[in-house]
From TrEMBL:
GO terms for molecular function: monocarboxylic acid transmembrane transporter activity. This is Monocarboxylate transporter 12-B-like isoform X2. The keyword Zinc-finger does not apply. SUPFAM superfamilies: MFS general substrate transporter (SSF103473). The gene is LOC106058947. The chain crosses the membrane at residues 39-60, 67-86, 92-117, 129-147, 153-173, 302-325, 337-358, 370-389, 463-483. Keywords: Membrane, Transmembrane, Transmembrane helix. The keyword Kinase does not apply.
Length: 494
């Protein structure tokens, strides 16, 4: 349920994120501000979004995924509604930066997938994050249509109202403790069913020797269920018994839920408990796990990986903030500029799903770091080519390739991080990595906007993005080399 439910929130939220280029045009037209000043609120919002990683992990652990996503939806929707009422560009620092940044930061789907999935994590990331590309494909044209039909204020009111649909999706997330309880009950049922099948097969040798049946049945009782069977006859589980075991598991779950409901004093408290469940309560006698793995700050390959992410986000954020403006400056209409983002989003979806299937193949898993390293160099080439484009068809081809490669890279970036460091330190490594990504979103668009104001063209912004993307590829290559040397050293020491 976690994977299917998680697709709406990233698809809509990322569709809004990919629409920031259209928002940039609307803000400039309404407030008459410079490119640098207009880019700052959205840049700070993305920075706050990434820096929220550790806080999101703590809220999910202390309360639940459902509670965290409800809070995220309410904050994001409120920010979008207030954008339509903004009297000047400075008000966006509250509505866009503060409310939007906190709201999007709480929608950490990467953390959710790693919590709900053990096997086929690559494929789960690819399928779940495919909603990002679908959102860009569907939401960007809708946003352009809303601005043309209802104007600045009306469009943001509709967009904010649509965001509230995330409340329904949030309620579909099963609390993790209940999810694990159902999984354990299913495993217990399958184990007992296996014992039943073994008992039926064992009963077929009863015609040969009753003594053999008694002996082997006793051994099955000791091995199959930890020695809890009282005698030979207990090793045989009939179909009716299997059904009763299943009913017993369901009864245990329902009894546990009834026991919790007895402590509710009234209907209001019970409703709040359903909407905002507590995932886990700490006991004073229990020692909590390590909240932050400080040793990661001394891991040189990991730190180089994080700096690579910083340069990647400088280029990535700059490209999707200024791509519509670049296309319009080259003679395209606003509708065509929106379609360029739409096509990029469509191929972004395909890239995420395709790379998820390919990288989940056992033979391909060791090659993940090297595949992603090559993707960065190809993205750098695409960034440098964009300023030379002069037709709608060429923009569609290049931006589509850009979307495919960036979607493939982003969807599996955290999977590579887990491969490098392991799942045990995932919350800490994710928080540190997102902090470095936030630095990239903080620097990229404002600096690129300053270049646009100084030089009068967006060409330099995309050349800057290409250089940063190339630098990101070099840093990731260095990280891979250092990691290999580190593993060889550890193997030699052991």
């Amino acid at each position: 349920m976690g994977d299917s439910c998680s697709q709406f929130l990233p698809s809509y939220d990322s569709g809004i994120g990919r629409s920031e280029g259209l928002f940039f045009l609307q803000y400039q037209e309404r407030f008459g501000s410079s490119a640098q000043m207009t880019a700052w609120p959205m840049s700070l919002m993305s920075t706050l979004n990434f820096c929220m990683g550790p806080i999101t992990g703590a809220l999910v652990s202390r309360y639940s995924v459902r509670t965290t996503l409800i809070m995220a939806t309410l904050l994001t929707s409120t920010g979008l509604l207030l954008n339509g009422l903004a009297p000047n560009v400075y008000f966006l620092y509250f509505s866009t930066t503060l409310l939007g940044g906190f709201g999007r930061g709480l929608m950490s789907t990467v953390l959710l997938i790693n919590l709900y999935f053990d096997k086929h994590r690559s494929l789960a990331h690819g399928l779940s994050s495919s909603g990002v590309g679908f959102g860009a494909f569907a939401i960007v044209p809708l946003v352009q249509f809303l601005f043309e039909m209802y104007g600045f204020m009306g469009a943001f009111l509709v967009i904010g109202a649509l965001e509230l649909n995330g409340l329904v999706t949030s309620m579909l997330f099963r609390p993790l403790r209940m999810h694990l309880k159902f999984l354990n009950a299913e495993k217990l049922y399958k184990k007992r069913l296996t014992n039943a099948e073994e008992g039926v097969a064992l009963s077929r040798v009863q015609d040969d020797s009753d003594d053999m049946v008694v002996t082997e049945s006793s051994q099955l009782g000791k091995c199959g269920n930890g020695g809890n069977f009282s005698g030979p006859s207990d090793a045989f589980i009939k179909d009716d018994d299997v059904e009763s075991l299943q009913l017993q598991d369901e009864h245990e779950v329902s009894t546990s839920m009834r026991d919790r409901s007895r402590h509710r004093k009234n209907c209001c408290q019970s409703s709040l408990a359903v909407c905002f469940p507590v995932e886990h309560k700490r006991k004073g006698t229990e020692k909590g796990a390590e909240t932050f793995h400080w040793h990661l700050l001394r891991n040189i390959p990991f730190l180089v990986f994080c700096f690579s992410n910083t340069f990647f986000l400088i280029a990535f954020k700059t490209a999707f903030t200024f791509l519509p403006s670049m296309a319009i400056s080259k003679g395209l209409t606003k509708t065509e500029a929106a379609l360029v983002l739409t096509i990029s989003g469509a191929l972004d979806t395909f890239g995420r799903i395709a790379i998820g299937f390919v990288m989940d193949i056992p033979a391909c898993r060791p090659l993940r770091p090297y595949v992603f390293n090559m993707l960065l160099f190809f993205i750098a080439v695409a960034s440098c080519v964009i300023p030379s484009l002069d037709s709608f068809a060429m923009y569609c081809v290049v931006s589509g390739a850009y979307g495919f490669m960036t979607g493939a890279f982003i969807s599996q970036k955290m999977v590579v991080l887990v491969d490098i460091l392991g799942r045990e330190v995932m919350p800490s490594s994710l928080g540190i990595s997102k902090f470095f990504q936030g630095m990239g979103t903080l620097v990229g668009p404002p600096f690129a906007g300053a270049l646009r104001d100084a030089l009068g063209s967006f060409d330099s912004s995309f050349y800057l993005g290409g250089a940063c993307m190339f630098g990101s590829g070099l840093l990731l290559l260095l990280s891979n080399v250092l990691l290999k040397l580190q593993k060889s050293k550890q193997k030699t020491a052991s």
